[in-house]
Specification:
97 residues; alpha+beta; two-stranded antiparallel sheet; 6 strands; globular
Length: 97
């Protein structure tokens, strides 16, 4: 994934933040699919917020580095892996980049 890659949610989701975690429930045909509930930890929640705001991969990575006070070398593979997992599950798609 290059630094200018921009992702967006694929489909609609009911999103709730509870105790530092984000709960994602896909909505299909106006009905929530409770069999497909996804729970994101605090880091995942920050990444998801960046995706919703159509931020670039670079902007999302920079936010993770600053917010959690980690080195980019540590955040980069974890962020890439998390985004790849979201793509594999069909939760996000590439808009540009």
């Amino acid at each position: 994934m290059n630094s200018r890659t921009v992702l967006k949610p694929k489909g609609e989701y009911a999103v709730r933040e509870i105790g530092g975690e984000t709960i994602l429930v896909p909505v299909r045909s106006g009905v929530a699919e409770l069999d497909s509930v996804f729970t994101l930890n605090e880091v995942g929640s920050v990444i998801w917020a960046g995706i919703n705001q159509r931020k670039s991969f670079r902007e999302i990575l920079d936010t993770v580095v600053v917010r959690f006070d980690v080195l980019e070398e540590a955040a980069l593979p974890d962020t890439e892996d998390f985004l790849a997992a979201l793509q594999e599950r069909g939760l996000i798609e590439i808009v540009e980049g």
